[in-house]
Amino acid sequence: MEILAFGVTADEKPLLERAFEEHFRGRHEVRCLDVFLGEDTAPIAAGYEVVSSSVNAELHGRVLRTLAAGGTRMIAQRSTGFNNIDLDVARQLRMTVSRVSYYSPYSVAEFAWTLAMAVNRRIVRASNRTRDFDFRLNGLMGRDLRGRTAGVLGTGKIGEAFTRIAHGFGMKLLGWDLAPNPACVELGMAYVDKDELFASADLISLHVPLLEATHHIVDAAALKSMRDDVVLVNSSRGGLIDTEALVAELRAGRFTGVGLDVYEAEAGVFFTDRSLEAVEDDTLARLVTFPNVVVTSHQAYYTLEAVGEIVEATVSNVADYLAGRRSVNTLVPPGG
């Protein structure tokens, strides 16, 4: 059997092909495409029983029905998040769906800190200047983080890894989650309600999944309650922040810095080259013009270790489907 994988990067392709070969020994192979799975590309999957999708695939009802009509019975998503998949329709179609429930939390936590330090110490601005042989320090002053307060929204595996780094910096720790993480409490984290966290933290990092309850958890009111000199980082999901409200606060001259690895309207834009095209998204176009904002293209997970774990889990998910098994990665079991 040949499995069709959508949205595969050039770095990911050899890892995916090697993992399939090592696991299946030629019994099942993978065909890698760099296009993303969505309404326009779903017909390509006709005749493929198993397809693999990337984090920015658009798997709403129409796409799933097109896949099912073409014979697809299983979707192996190569990400932890699955807010892009209509699971109810998948169940109706009796289509198996899996995800990657775990990969290196350090990849995302370390990148969140990379964004925090980049905006705090004006690294992008400094780098752009020195490329033009401008070595002035005006406007590049940052702040020590030691003794300041880090607010971590979501203290699961990634939030815990972020917290450990904050502890290493000597920061005070505030957390918000449905239940305290004992490891974070041991580090000295005080759990508070999110309104207190927003109002008190000098650095806020988001590590909660995107669910109906967390959509725009950082809304206009939350943004207004934050300190004028806060550093805000989002390396989780773009929909956690009301981006238009964020732009309004940035236009008012607020915030020391904002680091975004995700954007709520990133589907169809991130992971693609739009450098020669007119920018149609006015909000994104405005966002990247602020000198205290750094936007990256959903790359926090993109380390050799994390991608390797994602690939191995994906191959295991395909093997489980072929064997009629379910695992912790199964979102919709065989037969719906």
TrEMBL record:
PROSITE patterns found in the cross-reference section: D_2_HYDROXYACID_DH_1, D_2_HYDROXYACID_DH_3
Domain D-isomer specific 2-hydroxyacid dehydrogenase NAD-binding: 114-300
Top-level taxon in the UniProt lineage: Bacteria
CDD domains in the cross-refs: LDH_like_2 (cd12183)
Domain D-isomer specific 2-hydroxyacid dehydrogenase catalytic, chain residue ranges per copy: 15-329
Keyword Oxidoreductase: yes
Alphabetical list of InterPro entries matching this protein: D-isomer_2_OHA_DH_cat_dom, D-isomer_DH_CS, D-isomer_DH_CS1, D-isomer_DH_NAD-bd, D-LDH-like, NAD(P)-bd_dom_sf
Keyword Transferase: no
Keywords: NAD, Oxidoreductase
Transmembrane segments: none
Family the entry assigns: Belongs to the D-isomer specific 2-hydroxyacid dehydrogenase family.
Protein name: 2-hydroxyacid dehydrogenase
Organism: Streptomyces katrae
